Amino acid sequence: MKAGFDGLYERIKQGEIERDDAVFLASNPPYLWSIADGLRKEEKGDIVTFVVNRNINFTNVCVGDCKFCSFRAEKEQGYMLSMDAVLEKVEEAVNNDATEICIQSGLHPDLKLSDYCGILDGIKSHFDVHIHAFSPMEIYHVAHNTGLTEEEVLKELKRAGLGSIPGTAAEILDDSIRAVICPNKINTAKWLEIIKTAHRLGIPSTATIMYGHIESLEDRINHIFKIRALQEDTGGFTEFVLLKFLRKNNELGKMVNRSVSSLDTAIVHALARVILHPYCNNIQASWVKLGLRDVQKMLYFGVNDLGGTLMEENISRLSGSPVGEYMSPEDFEQLIKDAGRTPRRRSTLYELL
Ligand code: SF4
Asked: Whose CA is nearest to atom 4 of ligand 1?
């Protein structure tokens, strides 16, 4: 078995993993841990990164109906931040050393491209900060509302100061699963197409997975292989972020009778490291989804990044996040040091600061 294991490790190191290898490793966790941790060490050493950022959700009004959502509201009950309120939040963030502003919101029925560009222009004309904003679903929505193609929208957003986009709305890239959990969201092909267009236009993005609801192990593996294939093609993903499904206050939580164990979480994080090697070598665990103890554990299962300070987090909080809305840089540093690793702040695009 040892010889077989060494051969498998060598093949994975060469970037030649196959779906069957991933399935085998998922049912043999000690091998999986060993390979994931070995690759993490080779690629990233002991450095664990995080970004000082702030989340802004400028509206919760949304025409979507994702079954896992605890955030959306109807127009009559929802909120919409003024530009002054957005700028106040950015100013507070920049005064606290934030280098990134992350903006994601509901799909407001009345907003057009000029509104989205206005937010970017407004921030960029006052602050020198990286704006990481608007998921592929938001890009699709604004294109639809404005009567433009997604490519035209992306070009205008870039001109107005968009630095990169979050690869959220990916959930699980399988249309039979999407039909249940987010029936009115863009389908797999559209998500991949929008991301590919962004990368072609020089707009990098993250990639995500939402695991722990109705998907199977195979679905998770297939999802990560789709991300790998796109990354081989464009190289535009900066990181892969694993998001555990949180079940509080949403319909999917009532539909799904499943809890996600720490073992299950460790397996999917480690799989991300081995499947995405060598094309995407930043694997991020989410402290708002996992809580501090579990997020720290993931550093032993292929993870080299812990995301951002956030300052304000509404989406996971409303779904039952086990932790608060803000983790200070000092808390990040302590958490990472306590795991025996070296903390470093980074930019959105992974330059060490
Ligand atoms: S996840 Fe986003 S798009 Fe879906 S309902 Fe919630 S706010 Fe709307």
From this structure: 66
Domain residue limits at 87: 2-345
**Residue 296 is assigned to a structural domain of this protein:** yes
> For ligand 1, is residue 275 a contact (CB within 6 Å)?
no
Q: Phi first, then psi: what are they for 260, rounded to 5°?
A: -100, 120
d(CA 138, CA 141): 5
φ, ψ of residue 272 in degrees (nearest 5):
-60, -45
Residue 311: predicted pLDDT: 83
Own/partner contacts of 226-230, CB < 8 Å, gap of 24 or more, are: 226/173, 226/188, 226/192, 227/170, 227/173, 227/276, 227/280, 228/275, 228/276, 228/279, 228/280, 230/192, 230/195, 230/196
Taking only the tens place, the pLDDT of each residue in 105-127 is 999 999 999 999 999 999 999 99
Residue 161 CA, ligand 1 centroid: distance in Å: 24
Distance 72 CA to ligand 1 centre (A): 6
Q: Whose CA is nearest to atom 8 of ligand 1?
A: 64
CATH code where residue 83 lies: 3.20.20.70
Reported as a single tens digit per residue, the pLDDT across 48-94 is 999 999 999 999 999 999 999 989 999 999 999 999 999 999 999 99
| β-bridge partners, 308 | 51
Residues of the chain with pLDDT under 50: 1
pTM recorded for the entire structure = 0.95
Beta bridge partners of 209: 242
Q: Is the CB of 241 under 6 A from ligand 1?
A: no
In a domain, 353, yes or no: no
What per-residue confidence (pLDDT) applies to 1? 46
